[in-house]
């Protein structure tokens, strides 16, 4: 199996190295990832600038291609130009931070997986919830991610399908409470801004929001991750509101 591995934290991030080491157990892994951190860039792509590439070697890890662009750029370029053949699977991650709830729409990690699905490939985004006072263990989270990916592939993931996997923040002696297939929470994220003033008297604002797993319905990704479950959320890129489309469609005469 040929696996394309990318992320939005950048090619030198510890999460992608940990994921690479685990995915090697499943097949050949080729890394094409952003040169710099692209967190929160969503599904942006580069149109008005060239996409510069370079080979990067991560010690005791891999040699991959760094792209001076967004996560979606990496997938587009890899499949169109860089890979010897179309991959069997695209994995994005392991992201440093959860991608649940409305964060899915902002996430470059998820965008990379969505881009792969646009292009007719099965894709999985993997993310690790970070929590104060809980050590960040990418190796442990990557192992759980790989095991979850194997379960998903056994169940069946067809070309064009996307799944978002989130790993809970776990203490060293702690294991996940289990695995749940859950829907995306759609409650809005509450932004907070600090008002400041530069030396010239100009007012500017700094987004100092801190993501938290807040209150939500019990069947959502936010609730399950908060309760230390590995979450699996199937996603789609068709944004059509099909119910409303049917409601507004003109009635056919008999």
In short:
It is built from seven helices and eleven strands. It has 254 residues and is an alpha/beta fold.
Report on this model:
- This protein is of the alpha/beta class.
- It has a single domain, classed as 3-Layer(aba) Sandwich (Stationary-phase Survival Protein Sure Homolog, Chain: A), CATH 3.40.1210.
- The chain is 27% helix and 25% strand.
- It has seven helices and eleven strands.
- The strands form two sheets. It has a nine-stranded mixed β-sheet, with helices on both faces. Strands 9-10 form a two-stranded antiparallel sheet.
- A hairpin with a 5-residue loop joins strand 9 and strand 10.
User: Going across the major beta sheet, what is the strand order?
Assistant: 3-4-2-1-5-6-7-11-8
The CATH class turns out to be Alpha Beta
Radius of gyration: 19 Å
Query: Termini distance?
Result: 53 Å
List how many beta strands DSSP finds: 11
* CATH topology grouping: Stationary-phase Survival Protein Sure Homolog, Chain: A
- Portion in helices: 25-40%
Q: Low-confidence segments, ≥5 residues, pLDDT <50?
A: none
Secondary-structure element order, as H and E? EHEEEHEHHEHEEEEHEH
Taken together, the total number of domains comes to 1
Q: Into which percentage range does the β-strand content fall?
A: 15-25%
């Amino acid at each position: 199996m040929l696996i394309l591995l990318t992320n939005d934290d950048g090619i030198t991030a510890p999460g992608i190295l940990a994921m690479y080491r685990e995915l090697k157990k499943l097949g050949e892994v080729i890394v094409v990832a952003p040169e710099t951190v692209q967190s929160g860039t969503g599904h942006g792509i580069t149109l008005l600038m060239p996409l510069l590439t370079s080979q990067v070697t991560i010690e005791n890890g891999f040699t991959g291609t760094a792209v001076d662009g967004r996560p979606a750029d990496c997938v587009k370029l890899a499949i169109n130009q860089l890979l010897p053949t179309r991959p069997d699977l695209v994995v994005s991650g392991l992201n440093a931070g959860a991608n649940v709830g409305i964060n899915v729409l902002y996430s470059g990690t998820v965008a990379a997986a969505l881009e792969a699905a646009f292009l007719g490939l099965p894709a999985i985004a993997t993310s690790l919830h970070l929590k104060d006072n809980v050590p960040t263990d990418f190796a442990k989270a990557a192992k759980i991610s790989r095991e979850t990916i194997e379960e998903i592939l056994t169940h069946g993931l067809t070309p064009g399908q996307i799944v978002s996997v989130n790993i809970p923040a776990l203490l060293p002696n702690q294991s996940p409470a289990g695995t749940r297939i859950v829907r995306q929470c759609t409650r809005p994220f509450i932004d907070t801004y600090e008002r400041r003033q530069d030396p010239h008297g100009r007012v500017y604002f700094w987004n100092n929001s801190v993501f938290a797993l807040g209150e939500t319905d019990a069947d959502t990704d936010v609730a399950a991750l908060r309760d230390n479950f590995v979450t699996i959320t199937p996603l789609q890129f068709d944004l059509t509101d099909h119910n409303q489309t049917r409601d507004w469609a003109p009635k056919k005469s008999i």
